[in-house]
Amino acid sequence: MFIRFLHLTEFKNHSQLKFEFTPSINCFTGPNGIGKTNLLDSIYLLCLTKSFLASSESQNIPHEGTFYSVKGDFLLQKKERSISCKYQSGKKKLFEEDGIAYTKLAEHIGKIPVVIVSPGDQELILGGSEDRRKFIDVTLSQIDKNYLKALSAYTKTLFQRNASLKKFNEKKYFDRDLIAFYDQELIKTGNFIFEERKKWIPELKKNLTRFYKQISNGKEIAEIEYNSDLQNDSFKNLLKESLQQDRILQRTSKGIHKDDLIFTLDGLPAKRYGSQGQQKSYLLSIKLAQYFFLKEQKKCSPILLLDDLFDKLDEHRSMFFLHTLAENKIGQVFITDTNEDRIINNFAKIDTEVKIFNLEKIKNE
Fold this sequence. Notes:
CATH superfamily of the largest domain: P-loop containing nucleotide triphosphate hydrolases
Shape: globular
Low-confidence stretches: none
Strand order of the largest sheet: 2-1-4-5-6-7
CATH topology of the largest domain: Rossmann fold
């Protein structure tokens, strides 16, 4: 599984670009601000139907522009497939496979598994629980459409329940039957999500521990602990007991939307006790764990996107990552770097060819 061609029209700072890729290692080079990360984002968009950078579709359109178009030709399960995403201001996004529009974007998620490693990943360790829930949700949504469906339904019901709690407070009345209805919906989807997270997180943990042991030479043990309200009581009881508090707060205070992943080193939170070097090793390990988890479950190699990786890592961690790629027959990889010579030299060390796209030269042609 890989992408052969990528064609961008008016996507962010790229007016018109077309690329032909190799099934192995591809690298975008050029100075900061030329749009290397935006190219990774366009590939991510074709895989998961949305940008990993932009919070709204309008942010993908150039300044004073009115539309964007991203098209990729893929080889999926030995068949040629054309995937495209088009958006025009004020209209609904159009996402197509072989010219046929999806009625629901969720139908596409999981067809092209993808993993991205970017500078923003430090928020997995240093940020709030929302970042870690997003990590596990993006991972599990790519292997199980029922998980994605349940997550979507839970999110919708949670929004409705919270909106009702706020409305009740403003209007000075309370509809117990409506809250009971929302509770039943939350319980049904929330319990499913909880059980899926509880089942799959130990699989991620195995890979994480293995990779961290390799990169640190066994100095510490890296693990993941799952933390959920539902580990201590039934969701039904939690909602019942927190109802008065929820009415005061005007939001739902208990549920799987409060879950967290605790990243630990020798049993201590990496967020508080890990050095910068240990945290970098942890992030590499958790991303490799995510990659190989998806590879095992999907029975194919995900596309791997590496944004500015070598600029943020020392030589030891860089070479560990590269050797891991080489030894495990990683599939298609896309890398961004400001230093073309560094890319050439690094991959020469593991006897691996890389196709380089110098964006400065390409844009000046």
